[in-house]
Amino acid sequence: MSGTNNVFSQLSGSTPADASISKEHGLAYWESVSADENGMLGGIPTFAGFANTSKIDLQGSRNFLAKFGIGSKPGLRRCKRILEGGAGVGRITEGLLTELLVDENEEGKGPGKVDVVEPIAKFTAKLQGKKGVGKVYVMGLEEWVPEIGEGENKYDLVWTQWCVGHLTDEQLVAYLQRCKSALAEDGLIVIKENTTVLGNDEFDKEDSSVTRGEATFQKVFQKAGLKVVKAEFQKGFPQTRTMKLLPVRMYALKP
């Protein structure tokens, strides 16, 4: 999750916020973070009243996918192959995505798999060899290229959360285009991210990331050749008199 300290807004006519992104700075920040759930969520669960943030987040994502008929409950369809961008230590991989996999697909190719992309090796070490985890790409989203071998399934679901702020707009467009090229016929791409309160783009010096406004997300999706088929704000996050999380929005995208 992108940090919320040291944020300054993009002013009209000024340099675009994403021009300030430094890959090296961002990687250094995440290398300094603990390889656990608390580290992935920027220390938020340690604050009084915020211990259940991850649980609430995962349930919101589960509910969102169910609206597209995807889930582990009876009557919902499971996935043969999933891609997770920015997997971290596998909070979402193990807390949501692996439960969506088929046990054995109809082509007899064995159980479904979640392929993960994550540039920090100490994070991916937590996922190596885990049940349901397929290919592990230790690289940034801007470097990842889909590998769909002959006879292999394309992705039924691509899930990317709390990490695209480390990509420039141009890199994000290119990443989404690559995801689109690897998407199954009825596949779904989901971006779940912080959004700014006032609609402008904001740069965070702490982890060298950008929190985008709604207008920027819409431009990016359009340039990538994707349509927003549904968008919802995450509900139920805790807040206190002195602390409130940024708005988090889920975008379901299709070609």
What does the model show?
Pfam families: Methyltransf_PK. Keywords: Methyltransferase, S-adenosyl-L-methionine, Transferase. S-adenosyl-L-methionine binds at residues 86, 91, 161. This protein is an alpha/beta fold and 255 residues long. Residues 1-12 have low confidence and may be disordered. It is 23% helix and 22% strand. It is built from seven helices and ten strands.
Strand and helix order: EHHHEHEHEEHEEEHEE
Question: DSSP helix count?
Answer: 7
Helicity range of the residues? 10-25%
In percent, how much strand structure appears in the residues?
Answer: 15-25%
- Rounded radius of gyration (Å): 17 Å
Q: Which features characterize this protein?
A:
255 residues; alpha/beta; 7-stranded mixed beta sheet; 23% helix
Short description:
This protein is of the alpha/beta class and 255 residues long. Helix content is 23%, strand content 22%. The strands form two sheets. The chain has a seven-stranded mixed beta sheet, covered by helices on one side. It has a three-stranded antiparallel beta sheet with strand order 1-7-8, with no helix packed on it.
List the helices and strands and how they pair.
Elements lengths: L6 E3 L13 H9 L5 H4 L12 H14 L14 E5 L5 H5 L17 E5 L3 H4 L8 E5 L17 E7 L7 H13 L1 E12 L7 E3 L4 E3 L2 H10 L3 E7 L14 E7 L1
Parallel strand pairs: 2-3, 2-5, 3-4, 5-6
Antiparallel strand pairs: 1-7, 6-10, 7-8, 9-10
Family: Belongs to the methyltransferase superfamily. NTM1 family.
Protein name: Alpha N-terminal protein methyltransferase 1
EC number: 2.1.1.244
